Amino acid sequence: MELTFDNNIPIYIQLLEYMKIYLISGVFQCGEKLPSVREFATTFKVNPNTMQKALAELESMNLIYTERTNGKFVTKDKKVIEKLKDEYAITLAKSYFQGMKRIGLGKADSIKYLEGIKE
Amino acid sequence: MKLLEVKKVSKSFDQKEILKDINFTLNGGKIVGLLGKNGAGKTTLIKLINDLLTPTSGEILVNGNKVGVETKKVISYLPERTYLNKQMKVSEVLEFFQDFYEDFDIEKAKQLLKDLDLDLNEHLSKMSKGMQEKVQLVLVMSRKADLYVLDEPLGGVDPATRDYILDTILSNFNENASVIISTHLISDIERILDEVIFIDKGKIILQSDADKLRNKENASIDEIFRRMFKC
Questions:
Q1: CA of A111 to nearest chain B CA: how many angstroms apart?
Q2: Residue B182: how many CA atoms within 13 Å on its side-chain side?
Q3: Domain count, chain A
Q4: With an 8 Å Cβ cutoff, is B25 touching chain A?
């Protein structure tokens, strides 16, 4: 998992985004034990303190939790992850519509374009 | 106890004041970028921390001890220019370091050299400048020190090796150790920094958490540096 970072944005915020996507897409499953801060830092090639900060933020959002002496785990509550996914999808959809609006296309037209795209 | 304390340090050569009233402290577990233009005083500050120069006034403490023989045991220093005897082979340099430093891990050094495709049987004099710098860095990072002080570690090496060096610094650094890196190649190293110290004309003009600074200025450390030091 090699990540690229934009030096203009705080690294921990970018880490947070990457981690959210990993949680949503199930790279890390509900209830799964997460690698240690150090392991994360080595794989992502970031400073362990920065990684720690991103994980603390995830924890404050109740997406992960710490078991004393045992390490960090993904929340067992599937609803929390579903909610995150929902929010993320809405953000992506909004930014799509905003982009289309900029080139003069309304919602209905934008949806037509979406339907026209073959996966 | 603080790992490093620099208290009211000034340094003059003849009449010229190179460092003026430098104050900062550093705890364990941090990677700090010492950033400044050429001639700002970075190397002088680093030499003072390594007890290679004596401050004109003020004092420097490492683990609470005044810099000296004891503190040299716990500081691993990468100088700007190599001091190694070029007639030596890489393997001989390793032995030299092993004799010198109790905390030198020769197996680790051999592994790092192998990763970098450096030959143990080669004489330093037969190697390019960049390769010599890599050997020197391997030696420094293979010590289990409390404080690593790296003066321009990336200057002479190619971008691919820069990445390897940064990864080496990251993977070697433990919770209790700290790393000070002086450089003007900011964009290459800023992703691994916890803190930055900007030094200009012998004074510290800014000390901050790296991410906080990015957030505040909405720009990369490199960009902020360029704005601040625009000629």
A1: 34
A2: 23
A3: 2
A4: no
In a domain? residue A5: no
Q: Domains of chain B (ranges plus CATH)? A: 4-228 (3.40.50.300)
Top residue of A3, A4, A5, A8 to mutate, by most chain B CBs within 10 Å, is A8
Whether the predicted interface score ipTM is above 0.90: no
B221 inside 8 A of chain A by CB: yes
* Chain A residue whose CA is closest to B32: A47
Whether residue A50 is found in the same domain as residue A95:
no
Judgement on whether residues A67 and A90 belong to the same structural domain of the protein: no
Instruction: Tell me, yes or no, if B208 comes closer than 8 A to chain A by beta carbon.
Output: no
Per-residue pLDDT of chain B (231 residues; tens, 9 = 90+): 799 999 999 999 988 999 999 999 999 999 999 999 888 999 999 999 999 999 999 999 999 999 999 999 999 999 988 888 999 999 999 999 999 999 999 999 999 999 989 999 999 999 988 889 889 999 999 999 999 999 998 877 888 888 888 888 888 777 789 999 998 889 889 989 999 999 999 999 999 999 999 999 999 999 999 999 887
What are the residues whose beta carbons fall under 8 Å from the beta carbon of A116, sequence distance 6 or more? Answer: none
**Strand ranges across the sheet with B203-209:** B75-78, B147-151, B178-183, B31-35, B195-200, B203-209
